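Help wanted!
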Amino acid sequence: MKLDHSQPLEYSSEQGRLNILGFWIFIGAEVMLFGTLFASYFTLEGRHGSGPSGAEIFEIAPVLFETILLLTSSFTVGLAIHAMRLNNKKAMMTFFIITLVLGLAFLSVEIYEFTHYIHEGAGLTVSAFSSALLTTLGTHGLHVTLGLFWGIFILIQVAKRGFTPETANKSFIFSLYWHFLDVVWIFIFSFIYLKGMM
Amino acid sequence: MKELFPLKQVMGFVFSLVLTAVALSVVMFDMSFAMGMTILLITAFVQAMLQLMVFMHARETEDSGLILANVYYGVFIAVVTVFGSLLALIWGYM
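Answered by r_m:
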């Protein structure tokens, strides 16, 4: 395998560079996926029928908590990649573990929120509003869940093999995915929650 | 220890918290819907650009032209889908 040592490790092989480009193309498709979910949510948000409306069930405290958890985890995964480029395995793994713990905390708050909504009478089949809401939030939550498992497997590989062009490449791609989930959450926070409570 | 916290990323994180606080002002203070939406649109898109440029290193390699063209294309399709749906299904009947 030909390695270009002028590049960071994750870009050093041709395959690694193409993997990163390929992942960006996937992110482009994900942007469109969430675009369609937001389009259906905005179209249906007023149609809550006899069920509760957004303003009635949204609570600012857990939502703000989730936002801070995810913003911080996006920051720490950035620090993990920075530590990886300094070839500091211990720091990289520490930041990576912090990221996953914050992700897990985010998911726990989101699960609490879902039970709260169902308790308030906004189940998946109650109204057009509740199904659009839970589908949009659920798709994001599913991505976070997937990311947690993915991150754990990458962490195990880094622990076992150290930094190689492959493990560095996988870690970098995971960081792209995690930052992207943070971006999606910012839009959910702004245009579902804050707009709904305004 | 200090080398593990690059200034650019720390500043990016602080700025993202500030943007969140500004976005929060739309529910804390009484303001018109148009004013609130303007604030949210600005803070959300600035926040997205911040993640893209500071944390996702979108501009650091020779592939950056392709990467950004692809992301902006995705965003364009998403924006057309959202506003097209609103126009055809909601705003046209108000």
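OP: Thanks! One thing I noticed: Chain B has three helices and no strands.
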